[in-house]
Amino acid sequence: MMNRRTFTSVAALFALTACSSKFRIYTGPPVTSIVVQKGQRRMFLMNNNSVLESYDFELGFAPVGHKQVEGDGKTPEGAYIIDRKNPNSNFHLSLGISYPNAADRARAAALGESPGGDIFIHGTPRRWRGREDWTWGCLAVKDREIEDIYAMVDVGTPIFLYP
């Protein structure tokens, strides 16, 4: 049997865990796609034709144009999917984007280069300095926002990245 002090301690621990958890629960309509407007720095979580949420974001250090090769600092453009979730990201939480696809690999190979990879939607690094367009090609949002996005978006969700 649990005494009053133990019960109070356990209840307080659960309350603190719930408040500080980066793993939120989402019970609204499903996100059926993500639309990214790179030039406007806006990302939209969509349920069919309705916008569920929208977010500002930072891009790669060379934001204009489609990612061509590893290290170019560009963010891909085109149709991809969310292919993984990383709860242990160095950038708080992250959702993987399925770059490179076959066309991306062929384009980089024609240049004699690697297309790169590991493109994500993620939060901020542990030692955030707050500058613009600092990623290597990812989309970076605020930590609170990636917590919501992580809860709302499932693996397999299409993502459309436009210039």
Beta fraction: 25-35%
Biggest sheet, spatial arrangement of strands: 3-2-1-8-4-5-6-7
Q: List the helices and strands in order.
A: HEEEEEHEEHE
Distance between the termini: 62 Å
| Count of extended strands | 8
Low-confidence stretches at least 5 residues in length (pLDDT < 50)?
Answer: 7-20
Outline the structure in words:
The chain is of the alpha+beta class and 163 residues long. The chain has one domain: Beta Barrel (L,D-transpeptidase catalytic domain-like), CATH 2.40.440.10. Helix content is 22%, strand content 26%. The chain has three helices and eight strands. The chain has helices spanning 4-20, 102-110, 143-152; strands spanning 33-37, 42-47, 50-56, 78-86, 94-97, 119-122, 139-140, 158-162. Strands 3-2-1-8-4-5-6-7 form an eight-stranded mixed sheet. Strand 1 (33-37) and strand 2 (42-47) form a beta hairpin. The longest helix has 17 residues, at 4-20. The chain is globular.
